[in-house]
Amino acid sequence: MSLESRIKIAKRVAQELSDGDTVNLGVGIPTLIPDYLGDKKVELQSENGILGMGPTPDEENVNMDLISASKHPVTLDVGASIFDSSDSFVMIRGGHIDVAVLGVLQIDQYGEIANWAIPGKDILGVGGAMDLVAGAKRIIVASMHQAKDGKPKLVEKLTFPTSGNGRADMLITEHAVFKFTENGAELVEQLSDLSLEELQEITGAPFTYQDSVVNR
Amino acid sequence: MSLESRIKIAKRVAQELSDGDTVNLGVGIPTLIPDYLGDKKVELQSENGILGMGPTPDEENVNMDLISASKHPVTLDVGASIFDSSDSFVMIRGGHIDVAVLGVLQIDQYGEIANWAIPGKDILGVGGAMDLVAGAKRIIVASMHQAKDGKPKLVEKLTFPTSGNGRADMLITEHAVFKFTENGAELVEQLSDLSLEELQEITGAPFTYQDSVVNR
Amino acid sequence: MSKVIKRSELSNLINDGDTLLVGGFGLSGTPFTLIDELATLGKKDLTVVSNNLGEKDKGLGILLHTGCLKKAVGSYFTSNRDAVNEWSKGNLEIELVPQGTLAERIRCGGAGIAGFYTKTAAGTKLAEGKEEKEFDGETYILERAIKGDVSLIKALKADTKGNLVYDYTGRNFNHVMATAGKTVIAEVDEIVEVGELSPYEIVTPHVYVDYLVMNNYVKIGGRYVVAGE
Amino acid sequence: MSKVIKRSELSNLINDGDTLLVGGFGLSGTPFTLIDELATLGKKDLTVVSNNLGEKDKGLGILLHTGCLKKAVGSYFTSNRDAVNEWSKGNLEIELVPQGTLAERIRCGGAGIAGFYTKTAAGTKLAEGKEEKEFDGETYILERAIKGDVSLIKALKADTKGNLVYDYTGRNFNHVMATAGKTVIAEVDEIVEVGELSPYEIVTPHVYVDYLVMNNYVKIGGRYVVAGE
Description:
By secondary structure, chain A is an alpha/beta fold. In chain A, 17% of the residues lie in helices and 26% in strands. Chain A has four helices and 13 strands. The relative contact order of chain A is 0.15. The model of chain A has no long low-confidence stretch (mean pLDDT 96). Chain C is α/β, with parallel strands linked by helices. In chain C, strands 1, 2, 3, 4, 8, 9, 10 and 11 form an eight-stranded mixed β-sheet that branches. A three-stranded antiparallel β-sheet of chain C has the order 5-7-6. Chain C is built from five helices and 13 strands. Chain C has one domain (7-226): 3-Layer(aba) Sandwich (Glutaconate Coenzyme A-transferase), CATH 3.40.1080.10. In chain C, α4 (99-111) runs parallel beside α5. At the A-D interface, α2 and α3 of A face α3, α4 and α5 of D.
């Protein structure tokens, strides 16, 4: 999982965010996004009780009671607020987060997400994943195109446990951007020089596309 | 409804309250209680969002955004806190109020309360009555012994609409103190010089008593 | 990107038939300016969710003379004779809800919760038609979430982002209503720069607030009066 | 009437088989002193409700070496290898709950609400055995309230009445847990006189707090360390 690819994905996700959006960033690639927002000001929400999460503090300003959901020390942006876990999930589950950017283990052709458990392995952590899937207004999945074992993340049908009935709106990988509708996945942008056939080969689900977006 | 009788009831209820109790006082007679607490410090809770409600302010310190549930201007005692309506009813409905002192239209021999609606009349107000009946740890009913029309408030069976499944622990009138158990009402104290027979006559439900508490 | 709008823009934000969540308890924490404006708009068939309909000719009470209301949902209408009259004449539907249930139903509306089980009102007339369920030997009733098309709320101060703080018990239903409206308009006495409200002090984070309208009243002697000219 | 007790009194307040609600997210807002004390008590068959079981050998993680735990209820255990091991060996039951559902279930426990309907986890393995219900065409699941016999929480400051304020995200689950325990013990860094905390600043009103215990750690460089001698 090259840093270069991860940064490419983070940059492309950043383009999807608008000034003033309230955004919850999952662990992994999503945490890279704040570095690529340029002049855009988004409001970062953290499920442990922050709206307006700022960057990592200097070592001398660390307070381990001011941390992100990834448990790293953070700061507060001007205009930030603090609340408890129940109020934080009012915000998340009540549809007040404009965009959740999540990683996935798998995602199906309609945008259904599997991002918390691997079959046959211990299933001992879920955190706020299912709450975000159920509650965010818009879900962007930021993920490498393939898992470490080479298997495609985008699949016809999930073989990993689902994270719920909520659907992703978009999948951004190092190779492509897909949008999801009731009719399935649509390739809307290629981000690498793979040919259409090469892309299809490493993708586990059918997808539609307009001719204009395909590498020639 | 003489002021003297109302004060007598308020004083007797005050005896039931202990230092440190969190108390919600309904409208009517209960609002007289704070004047008769002596050295006892109780914490007054108001359902519009106060714990630690203090006395009426001087006219110059009135703020109509600092009011009681009866909509009168109040002050805050030292150590008071402010919260919103949903949190206020977490406190009330979650069993965190030690004592609710309520008025009634009727109360049955097991302590079931009717305090919000008169049959045949417009039923257009309930306020927090049912929440307090459902949630308070202990309910003391403070009421004149008879309604204005002379009918007894303590009855065998409610003819007025019930306020819920919660039961009063005690009824204090200008004539008597009753306790309620699964076995019905027990007269535990006479507060006027009515004979037992006279008391029975103006009371609409049977009650038990120990000989020692009865006027001779 | 400013959230500040003129009261006259209210007209475009409210449609006939809308459900409005309106903050306030008695006349405390009441968006008087927004209500004044609403009274002039000639809207029809509105449902208002509010603890009470103000008092006679005060607060929400003034809407009873405008014909804009179809229904009121709240806990206490007895103290406003006009509300009682309109109801008696069949001009106004009333849904009576225990105060704690009202607050919680609105909170659920804002929290993505469809309904909850409470003991409050179980076994009473107000439980008629509601699903009952036993939990640990006690009877609970199912109460459904309330959401609004538009919330009209009142705060003391906002910052320019829309973070809100309230004046004492003026908080009441305003915060939960901010979470439960599709469009949320907050009337405020003052707008301060971002950063002037501390992260601990903010009661309603800006994410819940779409628009800010300046209060047309000023508080004198603890009571709001029309601003002098 | 003082609520302040010594940590050694914890032994009398917790019984074998109790359900404990323990505040904290990661190691933030964690009652380290109370957990240290609990680890020495030789209690048995405890159920701990907490977002996570601390980290390996830190926070609640230390209880995994004491044999006092029967069950853990929380949202994230993967990051503590000891918890995973104890579970694999069959020494520890785990009930996995989405984080938002966990917070809301505890809030309901404190609010007299028996259960609520959420979309979170509907259609997933974590909904198995839970009642489903359709609302407005969407599937919700019924989640039940959680109550504790004892809550062990962490605040920054208390006043002598027991009103609490928290340090930034140290608030997390602590406030709702204060509402949902039969006995509530708050570990604090400092106790101030009544009146020093403003009515607006207080997050957890004193009515929820039974006992106060002084923190045995001090914060240096933003991290709690054992107080020097």
